[in-house]
Design a protein that fits this description.
InterPro entries: DNA_brk_join_enz, Integrase-like_cat_sf, Integrase_catalytic, Integrase_recombinase_N, SAM-like_dom
Strand content: 5-15%
Organism: Deminuibacter soli
Shape: elongated
Oligomer: single chain
Protein name: Tyr recombinase domain-containing protein
GO biological process, one term: DNA integration
CATH architecture of the largest domain: Orthogonal Bundle
Keywords: DNA recombination, DNA-binding
Order of helices and strands: EEEHHHHHHHHEEHHHHHHH
Largest sheet: 3 strands, antiparallel
């Protein structure tokens, strides 16, 4: 193999290519050029540097061909900055609706505290353990495990690519973090109390009500378009951002009422206003933090002494359906999950609503046992 050149259409530059043969596609360009007649010192310097670079590329190509089938990875194939390899891997292996891989890269960059360079030699088992500890301290639930598992996936791919002999995280297991406190949720009576409370921010509060009757996440409710609502059945057709699977929901009368009300407001407006609104999302929400602040005020005005955030809507939706004896497979389907794993583990009631009601179901005789009776002396009665 050698590197050939040809003149550009204008004739002022040489365009270089890999000469791999005479068949179609066997002369790919190298991406380099030199000036045919350099006129300035800058152009002459450009030609000098480019010609030296072309020699390196030609040499590297020869080494690549010789390494085929040997298991040897030429050093020029490895990126000096491991973050570049990570970013390229995350881009090439992205799964629609699943953000764990890209988010694991984001968390690794935050773990590095602003450093933009990470040499492969700096990644050892201790580094992996410290990154795992960072994730466990920052997140709860399965999130630390999900992110670290993707980190391990990238290291395994890097080991196969020649960056490591073995993955540095091979013996470091991904771990979840148990939440120290259970997340609050809304009971059935809380739903009613909330619906009867004064509304001060219709955009946020109607969106939250829509979520507690559909189980949508905050990231999903902000993406619902008018075209996702079927005019004849008022059924949402949404691709869940987290799962990537289509979710079809028959709307509860309350959720349906919100859609009808908002649609009427739009249709009563002028033509330009209607076109603009119908082409946008149904709800225009501020940031998640801003929405949660509005929810806090709303809960206080409704007299609910609970710390409710937007994620509580989805949990409440699942728990109340299970309270109504809806089977877990159906609840999982309505949540957009492909299995009941998260319904059984996360989206469930972790404590009974009424302990006394459940305790009272234990067997008890109509008359108290003799050893519980007290005689006139104040002593327990004897049989």
């Amino acid at each position: 193999m050698k590197i050939g050149k040809r003149k550009s259409d204008k004739g002022d530059r040489y365009i270089y290519y890999y000469d791999l043969g005479r068949d179609k596609g066997q002369r790919p360009q190298t991406g380099d050029y030199t000036w045919v007649k350099p006129k300035t010192p800058a152009e002459r310097q450009h030609n000098k540097v480019t010609l030296e670079l072309l020699k390196v590329k030609e040499s590297n190509y020869v080494v690549d061909q010789q390494a085929i089938g040997t298991g040897y990875v030429p050093p020029h194939r490895l990126k000096a900055n491991f973050l570049d390899f990570y970013a390229e891997y995350a881009k090439d292996n992205a799964t629609p609706g699943n953000r764990h891989l890209s988010n694991s890269l984001t968390q690794l960059q935050l773990f590095l505290d602003g450093k933009n360079q990470l040499a492969p030699i700096a990644i050892n088992e201790d580094f992996c353990k410290r990154f795992r500890a960072y994730l466990k301290k920052k997140f709860t639930g399965d999130t630390p495990s999900n992110y670290f598992s993707r980190f391990k996936q990238v290291l395994k791919a890097a080991a196969k690519a020649g960056y490591f002999k073995d993955s540095p995280a091979e013996e470091v297991a991904a771990q979840s973090t148990t939440s120290k406190r259970l997340k609050n949720f809304l009971e059935a009576e809380d739903y009613v109390q909330l619906l009867q409370a004064p509304i001060t921010n219709y955009e946020v509060q109607e969106a939250f009500i829509f979520c507690i009757y559909t189980g949508l996440r905050f990231v999903d409710i902000g993406r619902v378009l008018w075209t996702d609502i079927a005019n004849d059945t008022l059924t949402t057709r949404i691709i869940q951002k987290k799962t990537g699977f289509p979710l079809v929901l028959a709307l509860h009368p309350i959720a349906k009422g919100i859609i009808v009300k908002r649609l009427k407001t739009i249709m009563d407006g002028p033509e330009e206003f209607r076109q603009k609104k119908l082409a946008s999302t149904i709800f225009a929400l501020p940031s998640a933090n801003g929405c949660n602040k509005i929810l806090k005020t709303w809960m206080e005005r409704a007299g609910l002494q609970k710390s409710i955030t937007w994620s509580c809507a989805r949990l409440s939706f699942s728990i109340l359906l299970q309270d109504a004896r809806v089977d877990n497979a159906t609840v999982a389907l309505l949540l957009g999950h492909t299995t009941t794993h998260y319904v059984n583990k996360t989206y469930k009631r972790h404590r009974p609503k009424d302990q006394m009601e459940n305790i009272g179901k234990l067997p008890s005789p109509e008359v108290s046992p003799y050893f519980l009776l007290i005689d006139q002396t104040g002593m327990p009665a004897t049989n």
